[in-house]
Amino acid sequence: MYLSRVQIDFSDRRKIKDLLHLGAYHNWVESAFRNTEKFGKRTRKLWRIDSLQGKKYLLILSQEKPDTGALEKYGANNSAQVKSYDKLIHSVENGKKYRFRATLNPVHSVKSEKNERGRVVPHITVEQQMKFLLDRAEKHGFLLKNDEFEIVERGFKVLKKSNQKDVRLSVVSYEGMLTVVDKDAFVNLLINGTGREKAYGCGLFTIIEV
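The structure assignment produced for this chain is given below.
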């Protein structure tokens, strides 16, 4: 696995004029792997937009190395970085504590008489969005305490698709501390992500050992 990062070049408005919605970011991500996947099947990538010290970065987790030149299509020159994520993933053990960051699409299903499966609607309040992650911690193999994580960014982002009505996705970024209690489940989370809209900047968990 590879973790890649590039600073989005917001200093050049002409350069990034196409980055107006999540679908454009998705296309950017896919374009960075066209050479490696030319003769094979497309592999899943997880990605998100991170804010750090007033700058924004595109972060990608992938099975293959991306083309750093393609990453800098909308990125600052010489800002693309690619590193192996395998060592960190293989070092995961039960009982270890990590600082984490995750960007998710917190939603729930509301049933109605007309729709047995329910209509998917976003969680709106901070309390609902915090509970959304807490409720999924055990399933994904980690322990999370109320006072050890927080929401650092939340809002709605536009997703445009051809011949379809624009969609506003609820996107929430969390940061904090967690403890691994089920290594296999947690590693699966790191590799495959969680939740909806993985193709559009949600679902990626990243960790730093403390």
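Interim note for the steering committee: The longest strand covers residues 167-180. The chain has a mean pLDDT of 91.
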